[in-house]
Design goal:
Length: about 200
């Protein structure tokens, strides 16, 4: 029990490393917490700094979600313990202790966590996002549809415990996208490529 608590704290700290803020600082870009959409995530970095910065941010966020969950799965932890690790790393991204709890919206980190647990589910998550974005050119729409379907993918391929943990992650993603949901409902959500 003590081990999994320590591992979850470690996972939260890994999640708290903000790729968007670090990449923006290294490339001398505006702080994504104060410019653009004011969200330290891949889409805002794309708008502020272009494709190179966005790719680096995306890779960083995916890797920090992947590593703790993959390690947990290799250690043969139980499904509830792996679910706790997944929630911890996403919470770290959303509310990073190193950056005054001003985090991103969790999609890339959740994607990495899902890949760390099951690559088929990761591919389904990614494919869902890609299809929605290709159709509508709206990143948040892809994120929300992917987050909505991810627990069902998890239930079909893994088990109910991990599906419940994924549902918790999805609820957090929906909560952090509440402003996007409002704009989507009113047709004012910006499309990819618009600054």
């Amino acid at each position: 029990m003590l081990f999994i608590i320590i591992f979850c704290i470690f996972s939260y700290c890994i999640g708290s490393i903000s790729s968007a803020i670090l990449v923006s600082a290294c490339l001398r870009l505006p702080d994504p917490r104060t410019e653009g959409s004011k969200n330290p995530g891949t889409t805002n970095v794309l708008r502020l700094g272009g494709k190179k910065a966005a790719v680096l941010t995306l890779l960083g966020d995916v890797l920090k979600g992947f590593i703790p969950v993959w390690v947990a799965s290799q250690m043969a932890l139980t499904a509830p313990e792996i679910g706790a690790v997944m929630l911890a790393v996403v919470l770290g991204h959303l509310y990073p202790i190193f950056f005054k709890f001003q985090g991103g919206k969790g999609v890339a980190t959740a994607l990495g966590a899902v890949f760390g647990l099951s690559w088929p589910i990761g591919l389904l998550f990614l494919a869902t996002w890609g299809i929605v974005v290709a159709l509508f050119r709206i990143s948040s729409a892809g994120a929300l549809v992917s987050a909505f379907l991810a627990p069902f993918y998890m239930y079909a391929i893994c088990d109910i415990t991990l599906a419940i943990a994924m549902a918790g992650v999805s609820l957090l993603i929906f909560w952090r996208h509440r402003a996007n949901i409002y704009r989507l409902m009113h047709g004012t959500e910006p499309k990819i490529g618009r600054r």
